[in-house]
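My main concern about presentation is that the manuscript never shows what a single data entry looks like. For the editor and my fellow referees, an illustration may be useful. For illustration, here is how one protein appears when written out as sequence plus C-alpha cells:

***
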Amino acid sequence: PTSTYMASAFGDCVSELVSPEGVQVYLLGTAHISRKSADDARDLVRQLKPQVAFVELCPLRVGMLNIDVNAPLPYKEATMQDLREACTRGVAAVAQLLIGDFTAKAARHIKLEIVPGAEFAVAAQEVRKYGGKVFLGDRDVKVTLQRAWAALGYIERIKVLYGLLVSDFDDLTEDKIERLKTTDLLTEMIQELAQSLPNLMEPLISERDRYLAYQLRTCCTRLRQALPDQDIRVVAVVGMGHVRGIKEHFAREVDEEDLRRISQLPPPPPPVFTRSRLLLGIAVLTTALIAYRRFVRR
C-alpha cells in the first residue's frame, strides 16, 4: 500500500514496503530515459532524507553516479574498429559495445532530453549532500551478460547480434517515442525480444529481480544492525520493469543458495572444435569439394 501523500505526489511510481527489521522502504519505479523519473528520484530523496539510496547499478557502472545529467549525451555509435577491439576482450566486451551502439541509435532517434539512468545519479548526488549513503544493488553486468549469452544456443546468439547490429528505429512514430519516455525502455525491449528468445528472460529479468530483492533485504538488515534504535528509511530507485518482481521476492527470506548461484559466472561452454565436430566439418567440406569438381568444373 502507498500513503495518500505518496500517491498524490508520485502517482503509482512509488511502493512502500517494510522489512522484517522494521526498515521503511520506498521503491521508486523509473523510466530510464525520462526527465520526470530523474526529478522524482531527486524529490523523493530530498523530501524523505533516507539514510540510504539503493540504486539499480553494480560496481562496474558506479561511474554513472557522478555524471552531469544535463551534459551532452556521451554515447557514440560503434565502428568496425571498435568491434574488432571488443572481440579481442571477449563476449562481455562485445555485448557491452553493441548495447552502447544500440543506445546511441535510440538516443538519436528518440531525441533524448537526459542521459539514460540519470535517476540513479541524481538520487546518489542528493543523498550525499547530507551524508547519506549509496547502496549498489544490481548484479555485476559481466555476470548478467555472460549468463544471458550462455542461455542461448548458437542460432539464437546470431539472432541477438544481428538484431543489435541492424536496429535502425525507422518505424518509431511520435506516439511510440512519447510512450517509451514513460516506460522502462530496456526492460520492455528485453520482454519483446524474449517472445522470440524466451531463454533471455531468466538471466536478464527474473534473476535480477531476485538479486535486487535479496540485496535490498541485505541493505535493510545491515542498516538495522548499525542503527538499532533509529527510524530507518531507504529510497530504492529501479527500473519500473523490476518493481513487481522485487516486491514479490522482498517479502520472502533471502535464499542464500539461489543468491550464490545467480551471482556466479556460467560454467565454460564445451569447446567448439571437438573431435566429432571437426570430423563432421571435414566430411562436409570433402563432400562439397567433390560436388564442386564433379558438377561445376566439368
Summary: Residues 292-298 have pLDDT under 50 and may be disordered.
